[in-house]
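Preliminary data (for renewal application), nicotinamide-adenine-dinucleotide complex.
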Amino acid sequence: MTIVVTGAAGFIGSHVTAALLARGDRVVGIDNLNDYYDVRLKEARLARFDGNPAFRFVRADIGDRAAVEALLPDLRDCTGIVHLAAQAGVRYSLENPYAYIDTNVTGQVAMLEAARHLPRLKHLVYASSSSVYGGNRDLPFSVADRVDRPLSVYAATKKAGEMLAHAYAHNYGIASTGLRFFTVYGPWGRPDMAAFLFADAIVGGRPIRVFNGGDMKRDFTYIDDIVAGVVAALDRPAPPDDHGVPHRVFNLGNHRCEELMRFIALLEEALGRRAEKRMEPMQMADVPATYADIEASRRELGYEPATPIDVGIPRFVDWYKSYHKVT
Ligand SMILES: NC(=O)c1ccc[n+]([C@@H]2O[C@H](COP(=O)([O-])OP(=O)(O)OC[C@H]3O[C@@H](n4cnc5c(N)ncnc54)[C@H](O)[C@@H]3O)[C@@H](O)[C@H]2O)c1
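Predicted structure:
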């Protein structure tokens, strides 16, 4: 099978690419290698596929609709799309909202239009986010919950992405599955997320910023569990729902609501250094807690997260130390 992976140089995209190549698929990876964070990390992730004849990399901006259209003739064999390219990050959406519209809304439409024109395509899987649950207070978050109260532009664009996929499934019968990821961490992770930010500060002897006085809970999900969920979803094209529309949405979380302070303590232990904690108020666009109800994902995808944070954090730290040559 030939699968298009957008965001292939990204954290989750590079791991999904590795898993698809390992099972014998061919992968066309698309990424614009933007500088939202250190481009060298993106290049290093891609370098792992150097010399693999089953992998082809295309540098393109999915927000540029003409650029995506120009790729279509070369993608005619493609049977699946794993669409992970996005402008990610809740806090940055306060600074630069247009980046989110360009990639997460216009880019989502460009990929749905691409799906429409690929003759062998069976399924499009795309990344959504736990942030669509906004300030919902009922935990765990269920896919049946109301999700029309986003707290950030990022969350609003992710919800928009789900609705656009639904419209394309309805209008053109394009089978698609949205995956709401819950705080993913692990080797090759994102430098703007807690595990990496905290590790950088702890190793550099700088204070870490702990929001809401540390009273935060997150469903931290290890990358291997996410990859297993993405591949399971890809292999099961969405069947028509009760209204005949082949679109559905799943939560991919760890189904454990962990205290942020425990996450930090495990990082300190794995790094063998104490963090200097600077307590700060809650940030405007942040949510105090996330917790995934994964019943539907278990039932329909066979999704079974297997990595608690006391196993996943030491694995992240091992990678972090070897990548940054920290002794
Ligand atoms: N990591 C998480 O905890 C998390 C949580 C919820 C949702 N998500 C979603 O999962 C997906 C992957 O996230 P990630 O953590 O791997 O992020 P990432 O930033 O590491 O990966 C995204 C990749 O997309 C690329 N990209 C961005 N804009 C692009 C554009 N216009 N054209 C082409 N490529 C572009 C980036 O260069 C990057 O390599 C995203 O859709 C994100 O919103 C991630």
